[in-house]
Amino acid sequence: MKLLNRTRIKMLVTGITFAMVVSGCSSASEDSTVKSSQPVEIQKVTMKPLANEFNLAGTLQASNQTAVSLEANGRILNTTVEVGDQVHKGAVLAKMDTTTYQLQLAQAKATMEKAKAGVSQADASVQSAHASIRNAQSQINSAQSKLQELNNGAKKQEIAQAQNAVTAATNMYNKKKADAARTQSLFQAGAVSLTENENAQLEVTNAQKSLSDAQEQLSLLLAGASQEQRTQASAGVDQARAGLESAIATQQQGLASKAQAQASYEDAVAAYEQTALALKKATLTSPIAGVVIEKKVSDGQLGSSGSEAFIVGNISTLKVLLPVPDSEILSWKKDQKVNISLYNEIRTGTVTQIYPSTNSKTGSINVEVSISNPELNWKPGQVISASKSINQNEALLVPVEAVISTGNDPYVFKAVNGKAVKTAIKLGKVTNNQLEVVSGLQAGDQIVTQGAGTLYNGDLLGNDVLGKSEESSE
User: Fold this and answer.
1) Could you tell me if 378 and 318 are in contact, meaning their C-beta atoms sit under 8 angstroms apart?
2) Where does the CusB-like beta-barrel domain start and stop, copy by copy (predicted)?
């Protein structure tokens, strides 16, 4: 590589010398007669960094570039950007026909609402089963209490109450019986009416029945519950327990139905959300801020999910991969400055990454360099040359075409008070098609950079100066 670099330098110097000789021949004979004004290009001489030889090359890339692919199937209704347009993150790039997705979304919503109603219905069944369980448990408690009472027999207090009821009923019967006998005598004597006599006899009958009921209740308490009563009470307990088991089974069935309804509802919600997402994805947006580098779709085109539609990248900062020989890689460091040249414009880049492996085919290691591009005038795909910036010394640099030489005496034409003044100079290094001026010029001098070969010492330089640079107009 170093041998190739030296050969390239020799060829460049030879070509420059030949150009200067040819130019010198055209102005070898100096005429003392001043010519009319000549259209030329004038540039101010400035101090510039002395860069190393540009011995590396690479292709510019966007610093952050991404392929934007379609995320839905369908027809593209319209695209909203063109190549070169700047876009912000989330900017709409294209819109697809959403008719099908809107219909699917409406259907998914209806299914979701139906499933939600199924969950509510199943929940109501579970709540009803809960109530049935509570009711069945209450019936069991009541039946067990009744059976326990029968098994335990009457309490002493209940027997005493029954005996008191018999005594009271006997007293009432005897009283009513005596009253009826007296009323009968008075009826026979004509002292009371037939109706009064009949009412007195009826009260005796009622009192006798109340006495019989009280005596029977006392007899039952004294005798205790019968086997038939105990059997019936036990059957009541069994029946209440069966009711509880049935209610529990109904509850389990309701819970299973609710779980199934909930699962159906969740499936419906997922389907709805998926359809809503598909509808959203029918509008294609940029995932990053940058510039549209490539456009691969057009209005009316059928698109499929996953197919590339645009390439968007950030070109306010560019990057380039430089293939550095592995023998030189140790002299490269992260954050190191690198001179980048494109069409005679030089910018300073910064090493952002040194790749960890060697290319087995070329024996080189890629070094990534970041380059600021605020005016967006450098483009991805352009080929640049680069050199590592080790020497930061500055020198007066002039374009090769500004220097004229006849043998070993190079000179330039300075622009002084509107005239071309031949000025001898001493040259140093050659760098990037520019020559270092060791002596003869000072920073700020105005020199002719184009059209110098047609000039003689003292020629007037007209007002119409071709391609006058910004520096010369300062």
Assistant:
1) yes
2) 324-386
What is the CB-side half-sphere exposure of residue 41 using CA atoms within 13 A? 14
Tokens found for residue 300 = 């009316």
Question: Which residue in 287, 310, 312, 292 sits closest to 76, CA to CA?
Answer: 310
Q: Residues 138-180: pLDDT tens digits?
A: 888 887 777 776 666 556 777 788 889 989 999 998 998 899 8
User: Does the reported pTM lie above 0.90?
Assistant: no
- Angle between helix 156-188 and 194-223 (nearest 10): 160
d(C-alpha 146, C-alpha 157), whole Å: 18
| CA of residue 131 relative to chain centroid, distance | 48
Task: Give the architecture-level CATH label for domain 56-97+282-391.
Answer: Beta Barrel (2.40)
Query: Which CATH class, in words, describes the domain spanning 1-50+393-474?
Result: mainly beta
Vertex 380 angle, CA 377 and 381, to 5°: 120
**Sequence spans of domains, the chain:** 1-50+393-474, 56-97+282-391
Which tokens is 131 given? 């109530």
Cα separation of 303 and 298, whole Å? 10
Query: Are the C-beta atoms of 45 and 441 separated by less than 8 Å?
Result: yes
